[in-house]
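Exercise 7.
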Amino acid sequence: MPVETPFDRVRNELVAEAIASPSLLSDLAGLEAYVGETYAARALIELVQNAEDAGATRLVARLSSGGLTVANDGSPFSEDDFRALCRSAASKKLRGESIGFRGIGFKSAVTLGNQVLLLSGSFEVLFSRELTRALLPNLERVPLIRIPHPVPLENRGAIEKDVKSLRTNNFVTVFHFEDPDTRVILGEFGDFSASAMLFLRKIISIDLISDDGRRGFSCARSTKVCGREEVTLSANSAAVRWELVFGANVTLAFRVDLVPISEIKHEYVVHSFLPTDEPTGFGIKINGDFDTDPSRTRIVFTDRTSSLVDETAKLLAELLQESLQGALGPRSSAMHAAISPMGDPRITALGKRSFARDLLAGLKAHTKEFAKQFRVKPLFLNQPDYEALAVKAGFTPIREVNDDVEPLTQLMRFLGVPQLSLQEAWAEIHHVDLTINGCIEVLAQVVLRRAAGEPLPGEFEKWPIWITDTGVTNIEVARQRGLDRGFSDAVAERVGSRTVMNSVFVKLGLVEKMGEQSSTDGRKLDVPTEGSSEKPWREYKSGDVSEISTGLKKWRTGETNAKAYFESLGYSVSDVSRQNLGYDLEARSPSGEDLFIEVKSIDTPGQPFTMTSNEEATARIRRARYLLVLVHQSTTSVQIAVIEDPVYKLEFSRQCRQWVWECGTYPFVPIRLTFPQ
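Solution. The predicted structure, written as tokens, is:
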């Protein structure tokens, strides 16, 4: 009598059940169809999940004219594994010990092919509706994944060569899907992202191969230190670094390399080990054993989910505090970007229930105490002066470590952090060396408050916020020497009315006059002479200099391409265009010389451009260190013309458009840089 194999036992069980209850088998066919629709476009993800649960480190999927073959190097199927695969909701996997536990995910394979061949360990099995109907002729509606059949020689022979190659490369389990829907599979191949591997603990390599080419994905992990781990994900050799921060039951992940959040916004979703479609609301990925719908695409708000969201909020609050206090060191820039919300938190909080809304509510609860030590930037003050005044007043400012601090500031306001008040700022002004722009901003507030009849602080007479021909000084000296014209123009622009400003100035005993040269830092007049400063940009004459490696890109802003150009000359360059300092870029040469660069994009050479009173005043004070950069872009190149000391070298006419300065005549002798092909 032949020995009954594990395959025989499982098959005999299922055939007997089908004969005893044919209506049940028909119902299972309907369930399978529902699962296939529910898991649409996620069958590949389910096969990755199965491989991870089997302890695999590698997975390969190859689409050819002969079908789709998917193999992994995990543990071979046991009898219990095989029985659970055939049945529905019969998995013995325990929640928390594996990704899959419902026992229905593999039923999504019905979307991949009309027949499925399984080779794993001692099992060589074919799932076929046609063979099931032949076995049970009275049933028309039968499921694909239920009754296993021995593999006919013709089916095995068709893939024998591929199986032999895979086994030689130590692949243990092979699935082969015959007559696949090529469109669906290529769609899944194209949509697959390396970030799907981020929270897997075992799989380190995935290869997707088709006639369209090969997409290779890999994952390299560092040693976990102090609850943190760095993961490098590669897709066709392009590497992206993530940092994982581990809590007790949740893990946060953020990009280490600074990429604009808006460019990869779609990646920041909740993972229940594998990605769902639920946005986190921040520039982070969040992983946990969240309850999901059967397709694992949407989060279900159960008690379990709510508990994990609260733990996530607490962990995020700790990272927020560390980041704002500078405790994360060089990782602060990436963390600042990560913890900045991707939308206005006030709008999110008022919307329908979502993961992002619940996370914001939890974050607000967990930041109530430590938020008291912070102050956000008031609208009237620029970033550098706000930071200096907040620190002097004993508060922690929201520092600008990226180009855009506004999303983080919005978040802090939502969390209840007050802005640095005018009274808090005024109390420290005489202890801080304000920038020129800070002097303009503070004085504009003085004028507005005084015009409204409000008293000025007692220390007002000592404030060094007035610019005369000797530089930045106090009001007593300003009364004697008169104010720099450009400075008073900039103050009038901020106030919105020269009449209002003049009426306050008269009450304070001030007059304005045309100053000579003002100080750049308010303490010592330091205007470089014509030959005193390095100007490596001067070494390049007009014409083609396309050999310069600039990192130029088409359709980027003039500021971006001007920044890339100066960086190619060895300058370290910061984009400060959002700070309203009177220029767009700050550049420092290797020897330490500072330049202040205002960028103007023009459609055609000779087109007039304008400068605001703030820009004009700053240019007058900075003199030779202030560069006006005119940028003209075409489809093939960018032309950059540099004019130093523009206020004194060009002819401007004052235009009444909130007082701007227009120039229509200027030399345009550009450097032309071609875009990389």
